[in-house]
Amino acid sequence: MAPKYSHVKKRSSALPTATSSKKSTTKQDNKKPSPHTDRNISQALTAVAQLERAISRILLIRYEQDMARLFSTHLYSVALCHLPSLVMRCTALGGPGWIAVNADGEEIKEFFRSVIAMDLREAGERVATKSVLWSYTALRQFAMSNDVPVCQKKGLHSLRLLPHFTALKAHLDSLEAMPLVSFAKPPHLGPLTEGFSALEDACNLAFGPPTKGKGSSRGSREDQDEWRLKVKVGYERLTQTLWRVAREFDVRGYGSILREKLTNKWCDCGCSTDHLSEVCERTVRDGEETAGLRAGKGREWDGRGVGVYGWETHEEEDVWDVELDFASFDPDSRASETDMTIGELMAWKYLQAEREKELGNVSFRTGDYNSAIEHYRLAHEIEPELPRYQLNLAAAFIKLSDWMSTEQACNAALLQHKSSKGYWRRAKARKMLGRVDEAIKDLRALIRLQPHNTEAISELTALLPPNPSSIYPTKGALAGGSSSSANNDYLDLPKPRPPKPLPFATTDEDRRKLKISNLPLTVDIPSNFEFMAAATAAMGKTPPSGRKGKPKRRGPRGHNDMPVGPDMKKTSGKGQTMSFTYPNWERYLVKKVSD
């Protein structure tokens, strides 16, 4: 039988035709694309990546600025509402001049540090969401002022901002050129006269109103005036100490979840910004419908939007005074697991972290430092916004002579709070690593925080090379903590400013020793609490255990009612009773230690 296609004339393959040549050329081009096309694609991808990096950097810097401003507003509110109560309690035990004399003492500073650290751990939940919304609003207004269309459903597409990258970069440069943000009294808020008026009224109720003569519990009119002066000076100095302690904390160390998303997890292709736009656009439009639509022209980089009452006015809202009463959104959790608010979940996160820290302390005291390290690490994973657990880690690493890990733990702690413990332990680690110059810098930073720390002065003196000049005192004299000018010159420390003289004479009462302690609260921990593990995981953290059971809490409700120094006691087969002190501005005790 003849072949099926024998009637088809075969094409000669001796010489390639034009058609075959064209196909060959096309095939060759597919294997080796034009270098000009590659260059254009590469340049486009680089431009998009630069745009996305600029957007993420703008979001991060504006978050730090928002956090500094809002937390400063919170501290101003603390000075108005809570410091008068502290003055009253100390006055009742130490006399009217005690606060003025001891406002800069370590007892008050440590109390402030503990409560400020607890407040700052909530910065992510209280500021991050609002700040991202405001920054998106700012980008949106920038786009509208440059006639860039904004989708009603998907929001602003970042690629539409590419033609305006130069202006966007100029705004970023202006943000980066600003000085590092810190906590300070907001300039738009008035003096603290309202706080002192409340303090004066409370003193009149507690100690009797002023009288023209005798018969008052505070004596004559002259005594009343002196008493009032002492209390006023004490209140003013206490407020100044509050701001000084707040500036020990670094804004850049907080908001770790948002910071991670904006740095390591921010996609350079544009999908991260598009997702942000889709999430924020509806909120922005709802706010505009509620507050009235305002034109984008003339509002470039104005991102205040909605969310804080009285923006930059004397009536500005303290967002730390707002309860975190919204529920968590975990699609995998059961309905019975979503009845806890963010505030309650944060309180239980802290309880879990403190429980791990206490277990670590038990191991530390028995000499099992490796076990202590594991517990401290778990505590830090649960509560990464509290630097104390890194300091616990550093102490355990020192016991194992692991100097590199000690330095790393101290670095993490000092990134959030410039503490004396952090500087001291890092100085020891750097000294053992042979980096004496860096250890000297840490010791000097410690002495600036605590000018009368004789142990740090002695260690610094031992590390410094001997000075042949005879005009300087001996190292033994320096180690004694002398505050002479020669001492400061030799140690290369700034000369301490002399304290501002008091406008009244001090008394024996002013030298009484008072102690400020946080009051403990007690919670019942069931033997199984996997519920809390799932709830904590929903907030992005992995708890140390996976057990079931919903916790029961004693005492009034609220995020300030969670209890530190865990004291665990066995209950009747139903779990443990744990006592915690949860530092806050309301639950504390002032007691007299000695006259």
From TrEMBL:
Compositionally skewed regions (Basic residues) per UniProt: 1-12, 547-557
Quote the biased-composition stretches of kind Low complexity, using this chain's numbering. 476-486
Q: Where is this region: Disordered?
A: 1-41, 476-509, 538-578
In residue terms, where are the TPR repeats? Answer: 353-386, 420-453
Per the record, the domain of life is: Eukaryota
Concerning InterPro entries, the annotation shows: RPAP3, TPR-like_helical_dom_sf, TPR_rpt
Q: Name one GO cellular component term.
A: protein folding chaperone complex
The entry's keywords: TPR repeat
Return the Basic and acidic residues bias intervals.
26-39
| Gene3D superfamilies in the cross-refs | Tetratricopeptide repeat domain
A Pfam match: TPR_8
Name this polypeptide is given: Uncharacterized protein
Q: Which organism is it from?
A: Thelephora terrestris
